[in-house]
Amino acid sequence: MKIMTCPLNGPRNISEFQWLGPVHDDAELTAAALVRHLFFAPNPMGVLREWWRHTPSNTVFIAERNLITDEILRTYLKPAADNIASVA
Fold it and tell me: At a CB cut-off of 8 Å and minimum separation 6, what does 74 contact?
């Protein structure tokens, strides 16, 4: 059984989580960037930051996962300063 740590609820079975996609740079908000984000998924050899959701609590957070080993390195909530910057 694979375990993922939710930043609010602690370690949980991976079946409680939903993958939401890779984290993109908010500064790049052009039409071309949006099309690229929708139709082309990055597939780097190494660590990728991804959005995940803990479905029972509806907690959305970022996980850093090594795509070679499928190891989840760490999970954390999006920093509050980033939330303010993306709204403005």
Answer: 63, 64
Provide Rg for the chain, Cα atoms: 14
pTM of the full predicted structure?
0.78
What letter does residue 79 receive in the DSSP assignment? P
Contact 2, 50 (CB under 8 A): no
pLDDT tens column, 10-40: 999 999 999 998 998 777 678 888 888 888 8
**Could you identify the residue written with the tokens 């740079």?**
25
**Burial class, 52, CB count within 10 angstroms (exposed 0-12 / middle 13-18 / buried 19+):** buried
Distance between CA 74 and CA 14 in Å, rounded? 14
At position 4, the amino acid (one-letter code) is M
